[in-house]
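Q: Got a minute? One more chain.
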Amino acid sequence: MTNRLAGQTSPYLRQHAQNPVDWYPWGPEALGAAQAAGKPILVSIGYSACHWCHVMAHESFEDEQTAALMNQHFINIKVDREERPDVDSIYMEAVQALTGSGGWPLNVFLTPDGRPFFGGTYFPPQPRHGLPSWQQVLAGVAETYDERPDDILHNAQALTTFIEQAQRQGESDDSLGPDVITQAYAAMARQFDLLNGGFGSAPKFPQPLGLEFVLRRLSQTRDARALEFVRVTLDKMAAGGIYDQLGGGFHRYSVDDVWLVPHFEKMLYDNALLARLYIAAFQATGDARYRKVAEETLDYLLRDLRSPEGAFFSSQDADSEGVEGRYYVWTLDELLHLLGPEEAVLSAHHFGVTPDGNFDGKSILTTAATVEEVALRAGLTVDEAASALARARVILLDARGSRTPPQTDTKILAGWNALAIRALAEAGRIFQRDDYLEAATTAMQHILTAMRPDGRLVRSYLDGPGEVSAFLEDYAFVVEALITLYMTAFDREYLRLAEELAQEMVQLFRDEQGGAFYDTPCDSTALIVRPRSLFDNPIPSGNSAAAFAFVRLEALTGTVEYGDHARKVLQASRRLLSQAPLTVSYALSALDFQLTPPVQIAIAGLPEASATADFVRTVYQRYLPNAVVAVGVTNSMPLLDRRESPDGQPAAYLCEHFVCRMPATDPSALARQLDTLTG
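A: Always. Here it is, folded:
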């Protein structure tokens, strides 16, 4: 027998459709039922790749006795945080205020009108480690609700007031100048781990947005410490267990500070953002290792997360067969059986596989020894060792494919797909990979058609478009991806669509009083507050991405209105930019773009012409984070106004604020001009 979740568009909700709990999805039906019955609401929030969500579901939500207690006293609502980040953000704020921490599963108790009064994260089926059992929590909340209603209402009002006030944090009238960038970078630098890479200590998250900001500063200041930090971090992550040494792609985070033992779930957004970071690092340093990691990561997305429609699934679980990490770990005996003694020894040395292992008696693969070190130890040439390891990698990856794989969350999210599209488009133009560009355009086509019914973008897709309207982050990420596609394929339609969706974003999400945008559209179902977030965690906030999209559009089109929108968002973030820069890293990158005269490169010529492509390649061989590029015939768009093609041949114009230098009529001349910018 199924509950109300069976027909939902979220695989996570469908996983709970057989629970004996009488679950509702979030919506008017559940809230109306609570008010009609006078019952408190239990909202349980999680996501498909969440290990402890699955644990609590098995221990408690599948248990008949526990379910009976939940059904008797509460209206129970299951929420996929990835599908409803608005609901999650509000009630996470409440639990963090109550307990000082948060996480998933998130279990929050509400009054019938939706105000939170108590909550927590994971609760065990029996009391342990200082935690009450879930049944004790249920019984205690139900008793308090019945016998001390005044206490419930007091808590609900206090938490609601706190959440309302939290939405206004960060607003400041202080000026936004280069000093903000300098101060923010100095604050970040104090958290550099120059030994192991990354920021701070364990558990250690990759934080690609912070690293992107540091890389931007490196391009302008030539700070040797910044270069060392970026290199150490990227090298250590790529060599660690957080990186899938066989299949490519990154796991969510490392439980230690040396990137060895990951939390094994894989998220689309992490891999999209990290691929972009490694692409940028390749441009900035020329180090081929960074290109290799970027390509392996994107190849993982195309191999394991690509949907039949050509879009991308959301994530893969940490668990397989109920055990975290089982799919990814190895024993020395397995290597010997699959590879034979000689290649097994080479591979064990390279991947760090030992008899005792490094994870519950088995080994998480790392790059414990370089190919050169393996060759020296085995008395082989580097080429011989590389060939042997390449053969071993193919055999091991094929053998791993016969294992029970982690479950994949097959819903397609507009915003997360846009992050992947942007990464693929950037890789396509920088690495000259037409297959990546084709994958990016196919995924974008799916968003613009299947996920825009009646002309309005929706958040998710699974066997059809979902009913939840897209959020600010979805719009902002899609606009950014469209801009990147334009600057890769130079199809003017991409830029037209970017402007169209940017205008729609303003209409749906702007605060009429000025300042930052709201996360939810103006016509969405009302929550206890209309959420507005400035924090990047772990993806860019909708506000910082909107600001970045606007500054790029202004640089491409000359429309001052776009820059005004960006300035309002960044001004609303002013206090956070100085006080907590790692939490608003992407806004800092947007501010850096806005404060630095953008490099505008106008190439007058037919986009499909090989001579034009030579100019484009010259541009993208360099790391120019504040550059925009327009290609087309003269007067086809503002940046190309009066940009002539002498003698019918392509010419490149290097501009700032639409004021251009003399045209470069061959790529080498353009290269010399660009080199004056990069030093």
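A: The chain is about 50% helix and 10% strand.
Q: Perfect, thanks.
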